[in-house]
């Protein structure tokens, strides 16, 4: 099974980034975690680093995560990267846009737990849990 090497968390809240970093640390996964505080930063990271998994906030200062994942899905380099949208307020509209862009899951922020991260990683065959 391939090892998960790099996870990109796209969220503009430093508090949420810290919560997610702690949850990632608690997973025991062999993963490097990178953060982007804006979609423009995320585009730069995706072009520079091979990313295995993306956690994406929907409400960003420079656009909507649901639109960004559609952008990723149209790009041959990124369309197979699993994306989990993590939103404070997931709505039916968000779920519909996510399905159209092949998002693997939509979570609320409180759903971002070590157990949930491990489950997504295992479901996509991305890494080994220690």
Summarize the structure.
By secondary structure, this protein is α/β, with parallel strands linked by helices. Helix content is 40%, strand content 21%.
Any overview of this molecule?
- The structure is a single chain.
- The protein is an alpha/beta fold and 130 residues long.
- Helix content is 40%, strand content 21%.
- It has one domain: Rossmann fold.
- The protein is built from five helices and seven strands.
- The protein has a five-stranded parallel sheet with strand order 2-1-3-6-7, with helices on both faces. Strands 4-5 form a two-stranded antiparallel sheet.
- It is globular.
Number of domains: 1
How far the N terminus sits from the C terminus, by CA atoms, comes to 13 Å
Determine the mean pLDDT. 86
CATH architecture label name: 3-Layer(aba) Sandwich
Biggest sheet, in brief?
A: 5 strands, parallel
The CATH C-level class name? Alpha Beta
| Class from helix and strand fractions | alpha/beta
Strand content: 15-25%
Q: Which parts are unreliable, with pLDDT below 50 for 5 consecutive residues or more?
A: none
User: Order of strands across the widest beta sheet?
Assistant: 2-1-3-6-7
| SSE pattern, N- to C-terminal | EHEHEEEHEHEH
User: What is the global morphology?
Assistant: globular
* CATH-level-4 superfamily name: Response regulator
Backbone CA Rg: 13 Å
CATH topological fold name = Rossmann fold
Number of strands: 7
Helix percentage range: 40-55%
Number of helices: 5
């Amino acid at each position: 099974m391939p090892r998960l090497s790099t996870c990109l968390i796209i969220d503009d809240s430093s508090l949420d980034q810290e919560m997610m970093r702690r949850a990632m640390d608690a997973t025991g996964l062999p993963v490097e975690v990178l953060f982007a505080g804006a979609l423009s930063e995320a585009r730069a990271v995706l072009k520079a680093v091979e990313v295995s998994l993306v956690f994406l906030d929907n409400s960003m200062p420079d656009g909507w995560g649901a639109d960004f994942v559609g952008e990723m899905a149209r790009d041959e380099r990124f369309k197979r990267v699993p994306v989990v949208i993590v939103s404070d307020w997931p709505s039916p509209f968000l779920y519909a846009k996510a399905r159209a862009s092949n998002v693997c899951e939509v979570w609320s922020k409180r759903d971002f737990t070590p157990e949930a991260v491990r489950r997504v990683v295992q479901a996509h065959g991305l890494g080994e849990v220690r």
